[in-house]
Description:
Strand order of the largest sheet: 10-9-12-13
Distance between the termini: 81 Å
Number of domains: 2
CATH architecture of the largest domain: Sandwich
Radius of gyration: 21 Å
Oligomer: single chain
Structural class: mainly beta
Helix content: 10-25%
Number of strands: 13
CATH topology of the largest domain: Immunoglobulin-like
Largest sheet: 4 strands, antiparallel
Strand content: over 45%
Number of helices: 1
Amino acid sequence: MTKLKTFFAGLLIAASLPLAAAQVEEVPLIVITMNNGSQVSYSLPSKPVITYDVDFIVLTSPDYDVDFPLMDIKNITFGKGAPTAVSDVKTTVGTATTMGATVNLKGFDANSPVNVFTISGQQVGNYNVDAAGNLSISLDHLAKGIYIIQTNNISQKVIIK
């Protein structure tokens, strides 16, 4: 009888865990679905300003400031739920500078992936930031054109003339 009581007590506790986890406050969201199927959502109560130019869409609010290459976005929708992006924002913010056909990245998370894309979306390079958070990429071997350097929290347009 004691084993049966223990079993039902454990079952009751296990059944209540998903209910506790599901009690996340739902808020209005903007949901960005990427071409690779991943999604990121941002809280609308923080009143983001959404702008765009030829290559990027930018969301700016007191809580976040992010940009996405338009070529990577499948769609943008509105919904309700728990934001996925605000808690995922990293405190490490690197810088990317360009000198000629060389892009220098400094201050990024160690081993962060860095990708180089043509303006049409074809990946032409795949690198990782070193343990110190730095990377220097020479683009001398690429044809003249516009390229996008993308890492976890920065996308930069580079024009090779």
